[in-house]
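Hi C.,

You asked whether I'd gotten around to modeling the 227-residue construct. I have! Everything is below, sequence then structure, no commentary in between.
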Amino acid sequence: MNRRQAVQKVALLMGGTVLGAELFIQTGCKTTPKKDAAGAGAEVLPDFFTKDEIAYLDEIAETILPKTTTPGAKDAKVGEFMHVMVRDCYTPQDQQVFKEGISSIEKLSKEKYQNGFMQMQPQQRTELLTALDKEAKEYTGTDDYKAKQAALDKEENAKDSVERSKGNFGYGRARLSKHYFSMMKELTLLGFFTSEPGATKALRYAAVPGKYDGCMPYQKGDKGWAT
């Protein structure tokens, strides 16, 4: 199973709602500017996140999925995975929301704990991200968000009808951005469970799966299957 297949599988398990994953599945995302530029002998463009920001994302991901008896998010290099996904698969609007989210977390850390996120104790990090998780879940339920989404849906339905009348059935609908922490949490889960450590250590993995069996017995505490 290659990474594309793994992304499809995890996205489906999460209800097909993984931001960016749908673009990855449909288009494979765009190739990295650095790779294109290097291949063409052109000027190499800068990456989207700095090394410090990737390390920051690693710590956020590790707080969500810490190392226990199985590997954690840092073992799976989830920060680097988020970097690639946000840079290559997100819309400019979502990229901006995501990047501003890092600044928001740092600001909240200093306001509530008088320390930057990287200097905070593990318990403080967990408290902060738990509060953000609650905030993110409530975000899409606000009247303001629902009203904006309804207006956008109406606009996109009209565009979709026009495209279909032209025989174009692959119209890409626009949508509102999610809360930045929803993006970070989704990419943490996606990046971890499609990585080698996540798939083979946290899940059960068979390199050569047999027949598909949709009804396997499950005992409480058993690991899920990666394949």
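If it helps when you're writing up: Residues 143-165 form the longest helix (23 residues).

Thanks,
B.
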